[in-house]
Fold these 3 entries.
Entry 1:
Amino acid sequence: MGKEGPCGGVLVVDDEPDIRDSLREVLEDEGYDVSCVGNGREALDHLKAASPRPCVILLDLMMPVMDGWQFRKEQKKLEPELANIPLVVITATGKRPVLVDAAELVMKPLDLNRLFEAVERYCH
């Protein structure tokens, strides 16, 4: 079912329910399995519990509880197969430097074609 392969699809990390729901809908329409969480802490918990692991993480930077920057620091402390899951950062912030060693950056408002291309690179 879906474009899973050896991985568990796409993990969406965003504190905005409307954005999470929209991303889930468009990615599921493209055949991906999608999990959604509301902040970096929930994302870390999901990564530790998820099997199979996601093939890519779509990460918002500005979130309560644990933001995208802190999530990435914590993700890198996990075992290598979790620490090395590629990040596609989704952000509207132009003020703070991104400074996250993400695989890709997609600005809000989202260009869905660019987003699909990024996800396809990591979930084949």
Entry 2:
Amino acid sequence: MYPNNSYQSLLSQLTANLQPKRRVFVSYHHQDQTAVDSFRDTFSNVYEVFSDSSLDRLIDSNDTDYVNRTISENYITGTSITIVLCGLDTWKRKYVDWEIHSTLDRNHALLGVVLPHVVPVLRNG
């Protein structure tokens, strides 16, 4: 009834319907965009584990309270976890700090993931 390649497609559709995707906020330093794109593609598109609710651009304001409120209300709300993708300079980014703060204020889960290109640097000290 179905050609072989359609079985995989049918199985994927059935599996996707059994387990709802989690809405996830991914926090990162834009310097690591290539690694972040790979992470998103793998876990959001290939494995369909989550749906990404991250910022698509910086919020154009110097008002820290406004930026924090916008991140919290428009991006963190509705998610259950924030995944912080940790590159070499992620710790320096104020947006990452604000995103973590908003996540913790909402009592959402927080997970840090060290990006693969950082591991050799950590090992070599």
Entry 3:
Amino acid sequence: MSVTDPRQMNEAFARAFNSRNIENLLALYEPDAVLRVDGSEKDLTGLAAIAAELGQLLQAPASMTSNNNFCIQHGDFALLRADWEIVADGVVVANGSSAELVRRQPDGCWLYVIDHSAGASAPRIV
């Protein structure tokens, strides 16, 4: 599941989710990455915490699509936004827009540093 173009991260995440294999999902994250899954201030740091959260998500008998909305690359970093949805039995059970920061690794592959699954869906603060 290695990603050599940051514009492919979100599609790779959906493929990893649809594989139903937690190792495929974890392979997309740096060891000390941060995951935030909702609008709270709760950050999950490191692969063990991320595995616990994503493992729960994999329990849902559903499939995911995730489309890259934009990718802004600067050197070894890229800022991403994806529009995603999770469908079970033909019904959308969850959807949103994520915000992510990915980093190019020494081997040329890209991994998540920060993944906020609802970051681009958050309501405006006025």
